[in-house]
Design brief:
CATH superfamily: Vaccinia Virus protein VP39
Number of domains: 1
Helix content: 25-40%
Number of strands: 9
Distance between the termini: 38 Å
Structural class: alpha/beta
Number of helices: 10
CATH class: Alpha Beta
Strand content: 15-25%
Largest sheet: 7 strands, mixed
CATH architecture: 3-Layer(aba) Sandwich
Radius of gyration: 22 Å
Strand order of the largest sheet: 3-2-1-4-5-7-6
Length: 293
Amino acid sequence: MSIRRFANFFRRNKLNQNKNLLDLKEIHLRNKRYVSDKWESYLDVYSEIFYNKRDKDGLTLLEVGIQNGGSLQTWLTYFTRIKKLIGTDIDPKCSKLKYKSKKVELVIGDINDNLTIEKITKIEKKFDIIIDDGSHLSSDIIITFLNLFKYIKNDGMYIAEDLHCSYWENFEGGLNKKDSANNFFKKLSDVVNMEHWIKQKEDLYSHFEDFPVTKKLHIDDFFLITSLIHSIEFRNSICIIKKKKISSNLLGKRLITGKKAIVNDEVLRLRGKRASLKSYLKKNLRNLKKDSI
């Protein structure tokens, strides 16, 4: 069998295997053990965005806020080759949850406490997926993202759930409240196009002036976080942030092809022009790792 035919056979076989698996909603609905609380639309969204990761070998997932623990059972069933599944919660009662699989580990503590993060990263250093289903307070959502995004693998994703709380006063929110979590993620969407408006790193502090917590981060650390954001997608009550290497997030070269410019020949002068922060990043970021570029 040729390499091409083998590859096609492998892809078809993989697709057929996935078709035979229960979908995420069905797994959730069949749950009869620990209680799991998920909005119906979330399950549809997750089925869509997690499909290509479902049988990824060595997948790691961290869920913040597990309450009764049923969602961990769902993830354990859904992700067929998961390596490590960590659930963390501030409620000490969660320590009573017991799982047969050694792939599941629990960490009890405040996710925004450095000691809790240290406990998590001693178990697993990086994650393909992090889901924040914690307190839903706007300030906590923002701080949790800033603390945890660096622990996402390249091509991984960070998900903030239940952002409808960002519109509610008793969760530090409001439709036009400048420092709500939803407004933070809206502001964050501008960093996808950062290379077109930033003149110096400190411009980030100005852009996020409604969120004083950002200034607690060293500007290089904040700049690196934002440079690694590939895309931000909003669904009903969910924000999905995807992470990629910096080089995958830049506009790159202007690729102009052809020889005849009958209408406007000035465009030929722009051939090969690069709109890129790459060299700027190398010069200005402390300890920039090669795998970030």
